[in-house]
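It is worth pausing here to work through a concrete case rather than discussing structure prediction in the abstract. The textbook approach is simple: state the sequence, then state the predicted structure, then interpret. We follow exactly that order.
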Amino acid sequence: MKVIDLLKYSASFYKKDCTKRIKELAEIMELDLTKKIDDLSLGNKKKVGIVQGLLHEPRLIILDEPTSGLDPLMQQKFFDLLEAENKKGATILFSSHILSEVQRLCDRVAIIKDGRIVTVEKISTLKENTYKKFRIETEGGIEKGYFNIVGVNQIEVDGNTISFLFRGNINPIMKLIAGIKIVNIWVEEPDLEEIFMHYYEKED
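Step two, the predicted structure:
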């Protein structure tokens, strides 16, 4: 079968004309409709699956690791396509081990371990309720135990620089920081991968 034959066959299951939509999606995904399925690379077969799943403009889109096999440029086009579908009202369930993709695309995230949902939160809420990363460069060095208070984890000292994760009331940590001579300070939000690992370690 050629790509167009497979897509027309898939479209025949729906009570609507999908011809225009197939052409639009194929153009976005740079998919040659005249190629035989057997002659396609893994990436192009992935594109066929994407077009096949979206050609009837579904209201619910379920995707499992959809970007494997796509090059970075095509991944970006695919993300733009999903965002457009979402704006039109489609609900998208998206599973991925590439957490930067989840953070890029999703409003809410469910973290699953051993087949059990550990938590379901908005990504913004997950970030607010998890650790912040501190890295402090001091003038004359600092003892590792100086920041040994409730909420501080993973303390590391490298010369005059101390780094750690902190969760909780920010005021006690700021009082400790005010008591030392600092050269520079960095406070960062954790990315989704760090949050993910925190939940896994906590469960263990």
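Step three, interpretation. The first helix runs from residue 3 to 11. The first strand starts at residue 60 and ends at 64.
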